[in-house]
Amino acid sequence: MLEVGKKAPSFSLKNQNDELVSLNDFKGQKVVLYFYPKDNTSGCTKEACSFNENISSLNKINAVVLGVSPDSIQSHKKFADKYGLTFNLLSDSEKTLVQAYDVWKEKSMYGKKYMGVERTTIIIDENGKISKIFNKVKVEGHTQQVLDALK
User: Which of 115, 106, 3, 24 is nearest to 66 (CA)?
Assistant: First the structure.
């Protein structure tokens, strides 16, 4: 179970440019690690664009944004290019990270049960410890919640 104050599980995954990105790359910075279900869906697009619109505010407070979903590198590339996203989207096609961060959950839509990513944001401090967990994120106003938590 993830807990505030505990060390964040480390990871190394490929981004939309097929480059390896690790949590260790961001030592000394705050990391906004957000998990989302699927590229190019309405809620996920709104969330990504909102983070992107606020990237300079996040950078000013020494924070980086990393988006994670089980989508492929190619899917992330198209998504990032289509919306001009300037932060890393990490491909967790093996679902190791979504499981390590306990966001791979049973979901239900129209009475059907299936496994998927529960929209979650984890803020990791400069020392690699979890400082805030946002579960079952509602996209509207979420970027502001994250900015407030980082201050």
Answer: 24
